[in-house]
Write a structure and sequence with these properties.
single chain; 198 residues; alpha+beta; Rossmann fold; 3 domains; four-stranded mixed β-sheet; 4 strands
Length: 198
């Protein structure tokens, strides 16, 4: 049998002030304990929320890998090479998902020192926007450290990706559509850093 020592404080029944003091002490101890427990709860809650977000990213990556296998899309991890943007048999991921099939693949091979620009031209409905979406999606996947839907993918940097698409005209603006486009594009240009993509 275990013997437990206890400290007992007996208060005289007529000691009214002592009872108030003991009650105040008990409240003070409980308030401190409640504050510590609440802080611990907040820290644990933050940790598990953070963990849930991180795990969701990895679960999404595993699911994406399974989707690549299901559609027979190639998957490769990007390589870095200064001044080169090169990919072969790269597929538009959003088009693959929406159609549930392998769309037409794209290729590109640009070797340039420093900054460079690629001009995409073609007829209306010829796939220019889909091509740019494909490149943008792959750059975002590469930036996240994931595989891309291509047989080969080489890029000069893992910089941020900016897009600029026309918006519907906003009649509440005090200036015209062209000026609105220029202002939005100007904001992108001002925030650009070396190694980023537009």
């Amino acid at each position: 049998m275990l013997r437990r020592d206890e400290y007992v404080y007996r208060l005289d029944p007529r000691d009214e002030a002592g009872a108030y003091i003991l009650d105040d002490t008990r409240k003070w101890v409980l308030a401190r304990a409640a504050s510590s427990i609440f802080k611990s709860f907040n820290h644990l809650n933050f940790f598990f929320e953070y963990l849930r977000r991180r795990l969701a990213f990895y679960v999404g990556a595993v699911n994406l890998s399974g989707y690549f296998e299901k559609l027979g899309l190639p998957a490769t991890y990007p390589r870095l090479s200064k001044g080169a943007l090169k990919f072969s048999n790269m597929y538009c991921l959003s088009l693959s998902i929406s159609n549930g099939s392998r769309p037409v693949p794209y290729d590109l091979d640009v070797e340039a020192g420093g900054g460079f620009a690629v001009v995409v031209t073609g007829a209306n409905g010829g796939g220019k926007t889909t091509y740019l979406k494909t490149v943008g999606q792959s750059l975002v996947l590469a930036r996240a450290g994931l595989f891309v839907p291509a047989e080969e993918f080489t890029l000069p940097s893992t910089g941020a990706v900016y897009t600029h698409f026309p918006r519907q005209e906003d009649r509440t603006l005090s200036y015209g559509k062209f000026e609105e486009e220029v202002k939005r594009f100007s904001d992108i240009v001002k925030s650009l850093r070396r190694g980023e993509y537009v």
